[in-house]
Please model this.
Amino acid sequence: MKTLLARRARHGWSWPELSRRSGLPVWKLHFWQRRLAPRKPAPSVRRRFVPVQVVAPTRRDSSSLELLTPSGVRILVTASFDAEHLRRVLKALEPSC
Model:
């Protein structure tokens, strides 16, 4: 089938012309063209690890935490943060992160 499709491309034959020369119906030739065409890899939606840089603290205050998303958004989390609220904020930023 690859040989037939290569001949069609090389000679510039139409699908009906290739069908006539090969004795195969046009629909079957189209099927094989799609089947043998190089496939693009499916876009990956899985999560990936991102590099993390550990730095020495500038203050000795352990009452806050700073998060940096992959898109560069910085989030300062205080010691008295509401975990559910932080979860909603991160979820809202998810498409851009």
Helices lie at 2-11, 15-22, 26-36, 83-93. The chain has a mean pLDDT of 82.
